[in-house]
Each structure stands twice: as structure tokens, then as C-alpha cells.
Amino acid sequence: MVLAKVVGTVVATQKEASLEGLRMMVCKPVDIDGQEKSGLVVAVDAVGAGVGELVMYATGSSARQTTVTRDRPCDAVIMAIVDQWEVNGAYKYKKDEDPPYN
Q1: Euclidean distance between the first and final Cα of the chain, in Å?
Q2: 45, 51, 75, 91 - which has most CB atoms within 10 Å?
Q3: What structural domains and CATH numbers belong to the chain?
Q4: Could you tell me the pTM of the whole model?
């Protein structure tokens, strides 16, 4: 599982039929301090995440383990929206804080 910030969406009108109805989100991984790292991943959204939210996504065969993605050709899935994130007793993220990172 990887922590990432949802930074956008992908719309594809022509796609594999089994992907119809699935939302695809652009995710940017974050490091242990909550800072965005390089690279982007397009992940199927299984939990109703929105742009700007911190999420956890899985890749590879694990991406096909959710109810939404089972037996579908996807390599990444958002399977959790993060409410808070703590490391060594210090909060790195709290969803309801503004800004959310300490």
C-alpha cells in the first residue's frame, strides 16, 4: 500500500467494457513527511475519494482484490481514504485540519 494525494481525474470515453462506470483518479505518492514525491499513478477509485484527499492505494494483483475491481484489468486501486496519519507519536496528517499537515 502507498500513501498518496489525489491530484486529478482521468476521463476515457473509449475503454475496456469491464471498466465502464469506474472512476479513475490521478494519485501523487507522498513521503514520510507528507511531501509529494515524483511520479503519478492512475488508480481506480473503490471508495469515493476526491481531489485533494490523502488516500492509500495498492498496485499489482492486490489491485484486483476489492469488490469494485475484482476480475477487471486494473493495476492500481484506491482502497482507503486517510482520516489521520501518525508516525512515532507525531501526527503527519489530520483530515479535518487546515492545512492538514503539521
Answers
A1: 22
A2: 45
A3: 2-94 (2.40.50.220)
A4: 0.89
